[in-house]
Structure of Glutamine--fructose-6-phosphate aminotransferase [isomerizing]:
Amino acid sequence: DKGNHRHFMQKEIYEQPVVVAQTLSSYLRPVEEQVALPDLGFDLSRIGRVAIVACGTASYVGAIGKYWIEQLARVPVEVDVASEFRYREPVLGPDMLGLVISQSGETADTLAALRHMKAEGVTVAGIINVPTSSMAREVDLLLPTHAGPEIGVASTKAFTCQLAVMAALAVNLARARGRLNPAEEAEIVRQLAEVPAAMNAALAHDAEIEAMAPTIAGARDVLYLGRGPDYPLALEGALKLKEISYIHAEGYAAGEMKHGPIALIDDQVPVVVIAPSGPLFDKTVSNMQEVRARGGKVVLISDADGLAQAGDGLLASIEMPRVHPLIAPLVYAVPVQLLAYHVAVAKGTDVDQPRNLAKSVTVE
Ligand code: M6R
């Protein structure tokens, strides 16, 4: 049932404050200001490295998780798309924690990677949405998301719920390895607890995003730029736009523009820049200015400080609430999803059932 919404995707975007809060509630102890994973029966302090394997949108959660886990816990992380993982003959070992991420829990490549890791003696955790799925049954350690059924082919609420669990896992690993003192952990828990409210503030920009969608709907190509954990979010933005609007889109690390893709820029190419204010902001903005100098039409997603610093000359800006850079991908996901949604609606595509795609990809 779509309720008051025109599409399941729209409904699922709007459910995020509630389902992310639900998911966080099983991983946060707000009174103690601590993160608590379900009892894993497993000593996280003995982990020497983490191998994350997933497909599509879930793989971008893995890529964001790499930034978080390495920064907070100082454990090396490798991230693979599942279709490549087994065939590159990865070096596995008992010091490794495997981590699969999947909404459906049935994606064939991810399931095969999970089985491969287990057969090689690796302990495998899974961030999974469907509790009765094959992956949920086969992982050693289940870290459930509580997104509820996701019907739209484009993954939205599963993505942000997966990020919420990933953040909790990163904090837990950091604590287990003695990398986080109680005050630092309390601060991150407070930041995470604010995510649902910040998502509501982001949703309040829906009408503005809808109004700019027809301009983007006419484009042939769209680029998305970000740095740090917002780089995988740029990849996610591009995937979302491609899959439901059929517009060619690419995500790039903002600093990579001048190594090739800037050649694409002219006044026909919208460039979505994801840049919360924080330590990486100035560098991203200077990459944005390079795009503007070549006539590129910039849509900047930032907070009030960032937008003030960036100046004018933008095609559009979308103001996010001010959030800690660590949790920004959870909140900035909302305008990225809404933009893809409204562009697809403006183009008149089948938003919930895009051509050539299945919700669950059960062949390799
Ligand atoms: O069910 P899964 O999370 O394993 O699915 C993985 C991908 O097929 C999925 O995220 C796909 O990329 C989405 N359609 C993206 O919106």
